Amino acid sequence: MNEQVGQNPISFGEKVAVITGASRGIGRAIALGLAAEGCAVALAARSAQRIERLAGEIESKGGRAVAIPTDLTVDRDLSALIEITQEALGRIDFLINNAGIRLSGPVEGFPTRHWDAMMTVNARAPFILSRLAIPHLRAAGGGAIVNISSIVGIQGFPNQAAYSASKHALMGLSKALAAELKADGIRVHTVCLGGVDTDMAADSPSGLDRVTLIAPDRIAEIVLFLLRLGGNAVIDDVHVQRAAGNPWF
Question: What predicted TM-score, i.e. pTM, was given to this entire model?
Fold first, then answer.
């Protein structure tokens, strides 16, 4: 982690965040954490029912939220997510590309459609959403993009070649974006996760013991820390490891 902590942390009051994969797990935890500190949140996920329920929960506590059903494989949904957020909440300060999918299997015999699906959701959608959000972040005076990656974006594991490739692509996107947007005061961070207690981890072929997994709330705390940093703060990426694991997955 390359770190230079800023002197003037950002207040979340009047800020607006777009969060993909917000219906459960890490995305839900991030949305609740931001809303609790006064940030308005645009909740994106395929399940309209879940994000509408979450929006209601946030609003019942005095927060601001808008639920925007979004299929990350559909370009018009990506455009609508950014447009509706701007219209409903007035600005965009943060983009959290959290949504992801994992399909596992050896390269030999691995369906091309599964490769394409992971590249579309895990790399292509963050690319398009970042491109769409940048003018709004710039207009808001700067902000941040946080991409939720994984240890597989750094290392390779058997039967996860396609998933790993998609997360390596996300890492490359993040590094290039950080260099491009620095002059605009827009920070780009990646959070590379070990095992987190989500539905995806529960279905992991690695047979992870859920007792040892990281709670989504802990990841949300890290994301909020990154978003709160002042404009002179630089953190390229954060690696989050479990207390138990071999080596840290």
Answer: 0.86
Q: State mean pLDDT over 47-69.
A: 97
Q: Is residue 229 part of a domain?
A: yes
Query: Of the listed 31, 163, 167, 237, which one is catalytic?
Result: 163
Residue 249 lies in a domain: no
Read off the CATH number of the domain in which 74 is found: 3.40.50.720
Q: Give residue-wise pLDDT tens across range 206-220.
A: 555 555 566 887 888
CA atoms of 12 and 238, how far apart (whole Å): 21
| Each residue's pLDDT tens digit, 78-121 | 999 999 999 999 999 999 999 999 999 999 999 999 999 999 99
Number of domains in the chain: 1
* Helices within the chain (DSSP H only): 25-36, 48-60, 75-89, 112-119, 125-139, 161-181, 199-202, 216-228
Q: What is the DSSP letter of 63?
A: -
Residue range 16-33, pLDDT digits in tens? 999 999 999 999 999 999
- Residue 127 designated active-site: no
How far, in Å, are 1, 92, 130, 180, 246 from residue 95 at the CA level?
A: 21, 8, 7, 16, 32
Judge whether 247 lies within some domain.
no
